[in-house]
Design a protein that fits this description.
The chain is mostly helical. The chain has eight helices and no strands. It is 70% helix and 0% strand.
Length: 109
Amino acid sequence: MDLHYARKPRHKTIWKEIIGLSVLALVHAPLFLVAPVFYGTLLLLLVRYFYIHKKSHLNVGWAKQNVPWHWDHHMGKNQDANWGVTTDMWDLIMKTRIKHLEDLKNEEK
């Protein structure tokens, strides 16, 4: 468990993440006037991103099961891989997906 996500007040790295997501929402705010559905979807995805990221740091078992690429990013040998948090789609496209969790399972056999 990542105690930075669990403790109050929040750690500075968590505040940086919250501020970054908020800035992204503010920069896109003018789109609400021309594309409200797009902007609403963006807001939902930002909240979803933070929820999944936080939950994966607080519940390692859940992360291994539901977002193994993010678990691999933190626990794998190569910290310059597996950048996706909510999906590994771009890691697959950019060929930065390294499956460390599967390597560990194969070593245990």
